[in-house]
Amino acid sequence: MHRLSASFVLGYHGCPKNTAEALLAGEPFKPSDNSYDWLGPGIYFWQSNPGRALSFVNEKKERAKAGWQGAAVGVVIDMGLCLDLTTEAGVGELRSAQEALSEIIQKSGGQYPANEAGRPKLDCAVISVLHDIRKSSGLPPIDTVLGIFFEGEPIYPNSYFYEKSHVQICVCNPAQIKGVFRVSQGATQS
After folding, report:
1. Looking at the whole model, is its pTM more than 0.85?
2. Is 95 in a helix, a strand, or coil?
3. Where are the alpha helices (DSSP H) in 10-120?
4. How many of the other CB atoms lie within 10 Å of CB of 15?
5. For residues 10, 173, 181 and 150, what is the CA-based torsion angle, rounded to 10 degrees?
6. Which of 23, 38, 85, 158 stands the most exposed, by the fewest C-beta atoms within 10 Å?
7. 126-158 residue pLDDT tens
């Protein structure tokens, strides 16, 4: 856990076009709270990757009903107190939360959640337990969670680089979103 980010971060969110227009007009983001949300409950963004947000919208359009239109919005995020899963400290916090979850499940006789294809229920449960531990201990709440997601096919044979890999940000505290802006269909990452 840290507050080491010295500046704001740009994030990008793909959504239905009417939702994008409402967000641009000042409507608040609606946090997701599914049992399979990879980084736990919150609002999800691709860091510094408008192209991936637009690709997501296009992928969703292919599966949607006729007439569905999507868009992407950009946001300025103050990372605040960040559970950064690219750091040793963040990984250590998560490991401790997983141990706590395991103990809770053993004591209750419940079923241990599993990560299944496209549904990381275990990861979501571990992060949710970490939120609960911090709350019950009187520690400051986590504002954002940052993780690297390896997605898609290798970009060439035997590569550890994948075509859709990205840095994902989950904003747990909507007050950390400092501004919303329009992303054009022609936006690309450089």
Report:
1. yes
2. helix
3. 17-24, 50-63, 88-108
4. 20
5. 40
6. 158
7. 999 999 999 999 999 999 999 999 999 999 999
Residues 6+ apart with CB under 8 A from 11: 45, 46, 47, 48, 74, 75, 77, 169, 171
Torsion angle of C-alpha atoms 113, 115, 116, 119, degrees rounded to 10: 90
73: buried, middle or exposed (CB in 10 Å: 19+, 13-18, 0-12)? buried
Q: What is d(CA 94, CA 100) in angstroms, rounded to the nearest whole number?
A: 10
Q: How far from chain centre, in Å, is Cα 182?
A: 20
Phi, psi of 154 (to 5 degrees): -55, 145
Task: Tell me the pairing of strands 82-84 and 144-149.
Answer: parallel
The per-residue pLDDT for range 57-70, each reduced to its tens digit, is 988 888 877 788 99
Whether the pLDDT of residue 175 is over 80: the answer is yes
First to last CA, the chain: 29
pLDDT of residue 117: 84
For residues 162-170, give the mean pLDDT.
Answer: 95
Compute the average pLDDT of residues 80-87: 96
Q: Which amino acid does the sequence have at 50? A: P
